[in-house]
Amino acid sequence: MKTFLSTFFLAFAFVLSAFSADPAYENAMKTQLAAMETIQTLEESQAVTNGFLRIAEAKPEEWLPLYYAAYLQATAAFRFDVNKDQYFDQADELITKADKIAPNNSEITAIKGYVLMGKISVDPSSRGQSLSPQAMQLFGKAINLDRENPRALMLMSQMEQGMAQFFGSGPEKACGLARNSIALYSKEEAEVSEDYILPTWGKDLAEKVAGVCK
């Protein structure tokens, strides 16, 4: 009887595992991630964002679609001529929803800081003093949540670089963080496969910060 029950529960667990993998979800995510790499215009950015939001509606238990939608809205604000506060607010709303699905997630926490950094960039003189400590705290938390997360270190390096420029100090701390993040990116690249849908972005930004010290 024990053998039968053990076999039954193992089979049941296998079925649940197979179902949770959800090839349709993974394929949809890979399609959007591929499209994300080709974005050249605001319209294309919004189309990919909407694709991630449709996946989020279909899979409300998954945090990654909301994460990427938030990332794209924030990146669009940095990259294109838009109402930047509106886009950063939308990104903040999306990443807050992702945080409720997966609290204390290093990637989500780092993007929260990324959004705050964007809000600071809109009006550094009036927002820097109040928001910069919050962004630094979020990047520090993201690093502590996952010491292997290169994006947390990279974003911290960008923040340090901006602060060094503002206060007229040297870039050494920013460059050190950037170099450490590049090492983590290289380690991450060795683990990435064609089925990988977790975040991998940001190495070029780390290299840009590190390049200041050459």
From TrEMBL:
It comes from the Bacteria. Gene3D superfamilies: Tetratricopeptide repeat domain. Keywords: Signal. Residues 1-20 form the signal peptide. This is Tetratricopeptide repeat protein. The lineage of its organism: Bacteria, Pseudomonadati, Bacteroidota, Cytophagia, Cytophagales.
